[in-house]
Specification:
With about 90 residues, the chain is mainly α. It has helices at about 5-15, 20-25, 30-45, 60-80; strands at about 50, 55. Helix 1 (about 5-15) packs across helix 3. The protein starts with a helix and ends in a 10-residue tail after the last helix.
Length: about 90
């Protein structure tokens, strides 16, 4: 699993559409779709129910989105500059 695949997955989940997600991530739509397919193959589960003009998260996709966003928040907290100083100083 690559970080950019998770980023693309979150973009599709939030945009509800592969084309809008690709535009938001500034990548070609076929490339984004291919990365999502690779992620699904690696995880062994379908992340989206695909429709002609939209994509809806599966139950597995909803769980992954929750964990990906929680992980992203955790990384952001760890990287925040105030973490380098001791509390109380």
């Amino acid at each position: 699993m690559e970080l950019h695949q998770l980023r693309y997955f979150c973009a599709v989940a939030h945009n509800g559409n592969f084309t809008r997600a690709a535009k938001a991530e500034n990548v070609a739509q076929p490339s984004l779709s291919q990365q999502i397919l690779k992620l699904e193959a690696e995880l062994g589960a379908k992340l989206f129910d695909r429709f002609p003009r939209s994509a809806r998260l599966t139950q597995f996709g909803k769980t992954l989105l929750f964990r990906a966003e929680a992980n992203d928040a955790f990384i952001a907290i760890l990287a925040y500059p105030w973490r380098t100083r001791s509390i109380g100083r």
